[in-house]
Amino acid sequence: MAMDAFAAVATASFLACAVTTIGIWMISRYQEWGTKHSVYFISFAAGVLISVSFVHIIPESLEMHEMAPAFLLVGFLAIYLSNRLLDLYVCHGLQSADRTAGIAPVLAIGFHSFVDGVIYSVTFKVSMFTGALAAVGMVLHEFPEGIVTFLLLQRSGFSRKKSAMGAFVAAALSTPLGALVSYPFIKDITRPVLGVLLATSAGALIYVGASHLLPAVEKENKKYSVLALAVGVVVALIIMISER
Predict the structure, then answer these.
(1) Could you give the CA distance from residue 144 to residue 105 in angstroms, rounded to a whole number?
(2) Which range scores top for mean pLDDT: 50-64, 73-87, 122-136, 230-244?
(3) d(CA 45, CA 201)
(4) pLDDT more than 70, % of the chain
């Protein structure tokens, strides 16, 4: 890969990191407003994550690897089991249920964001045009991802500072890390391997959306939460159309 491709990968991944960081900063800066309206961000994110997983990530992974459904299950169960293990052995006695509810989905988001970085390397290897299209779609979802990651941690009992730092590492920093770590080895990453990563990521994200985000929305029972969910679905569809 030429040096200009490396520059493109680095630029796209750090742009994604910057957009996520802006989301984290805004929600931490205007915390009262963010807390009051957090259910709408969570509902919106649920629509985005679940739609992207079912309509885009899973079909892509199926094209790349015939065992993608098995790794979809692996991703789903991995986050579920990590949830249970954190509850039993890490957070026990320290508001364990609340803490686990924040940490487990953040692990899934971190894994997904890391894979996003790998995808930047892969798509820019195919062509600059393909990489640019993928970058447009992925960067658009980084802003609400940063907000939701912060809110998940804060709602689980972490302080504002710890929530911001945790969200930055999991949702923002992991993307350029994934890009820079994978870039030197990208020639060895085959489509089947990427298919495995995509399927595992989709399983994790579906668990986050269905088992953490949507129940939180239903618990709040705000008037326009369903509308926010619908907007998330529509935005996800627009993003996926823009990638094609």
Answers:
(1) 15
(2) 50-64
(3) 16
(4) 83
> For residue 201, how many C-alpha atoms fall within 13 Å in the half-sphere facing its CB?
27
194 confidence band (pLDDT: 50, 70, 90): confident
Q: Would you state the pLDDT for residue 169?
A: 92
Reported in sequence order, the residue ranges of 56-205 that DSSP labels E, i.e. its strands, are none
Q: How far is CA 230 from CA 50, 179, 210, 235, in A?
A: 11, 31, 15, 9
d(CA 55, CA 115): 18
CB 228, CB 44: distance < 8 Å: yes
Q: Half-sphere exposure of residue 146, counting CA atoms within 13 Å on the CB side?
A: 26
Nearest to 178 by CA among 189, 162, 191, 166: 189
Q: Which residue has the higher pLDDT, 233 or 190?
A: 233
Could you give the CA distance from residue 86 to residue 106 in angstroms, rounded to a whole number? 12
d(CA 22, CA 142): 9
